[in-house]
Design goal:
- The chain starts with a helix and ends with a helix.
- By secondary structure, it is mainly alpha-helical.
- The longest helix is centred in the last third of the chain and has 41 residues.
């Protein structure tokens, strides 16, 4: 097992290095080799390498504008490790869900994007691990932004408020950063909503004046 773990680690690091050299196709091939070699393993360390390879493969496919393939990879990871109880594997499932949501948003599939964020939040909302709490906070922020882009400002503000209420007392920097982003995004959403209301009132006033003139 110790030697198998070293082989998996070498393959994983080789893929990362190839990616840094902008040799993305070769990186994907090495991720595939790692996954194929260790996909049936029972050792946690090797299962974690497989999960990380799937996440990174999906991310790399997204960078190559192969978003449909990326989503298939994320779905494969989620299905494979959905019932895993180990924190390291749960973290990779959360990352896959988060990245899938972002990818769907880039494809202008906003409804599906929100559904994926909701699935992430529901699955990990009671998690105590920082990595999972950070993913939940990020999903809430992204969901709020997407709702705002869909001209659903009241729902967006509700999501930002939920994030702020949940994590406002957190001491961890990553969570405090998400709270700051939520406050910022809430302010932007309120500003845009007020601007739309102002334009609407102005239009109604113009129509009333026009009616009186006639």
């Amino acid at each position: 097992p110790a030697l198998r773990e070293q082989v998996a680690g070498a393959l994983f690091n080789k893929s990362i290095t190839l990616g840094q050299l902008d040799r993305a196709e070769e990186a994907i091939a090495v991720y595939d080799a790692l996954i194929a070699r260790f996909e049936d393993t029972s050792e946690l360390a090797l299962r974690e390498h497989v999960a990380k390879a799937l996440v990174n493969k999906g991310f790399t496919l997204g960078q190559l504008n192969r978003s449909g393939e990326a989503i298939v990879v994320y779905d494969a990871l989620i299905a494979r490790f959905a019932d895993a109880s180990e924190p390291a594997l749960r973290e990779q499932v959360a990352k896959a869900l988060f990245n899938k949501g972002i990818t769907l948003g880039q494809l202008n599939r906003s409804g599906e994007e929100i559904t994926v964020y909701d699935a992430l939040i529901a699955r990990f909302e009671d998690a105590s691990e920082l990595a999972l709490r950070e993913q939940v906070a990020g999903a809430l922020n992204n969901k709020g932004i997407t709702l705002g882009q869909l001209n659903r400002p009241e729902e967006a503000i509700g999501v930002f408020d939920a994030l702020i209420a949940r994590f406002e007392d957190a001491g961890e920097l990553a969570l405090r950063d998400q709270v700051a982003k939520a406050l910022h995004n809430k302010g932007i959403t309120l500003g845009r909503s007020n601007a739309r209301e102002g334009r609407s009132r102005s239009t109604r006033g113009s129509r009333e004046n026009s009616d009186k003139a006639r």
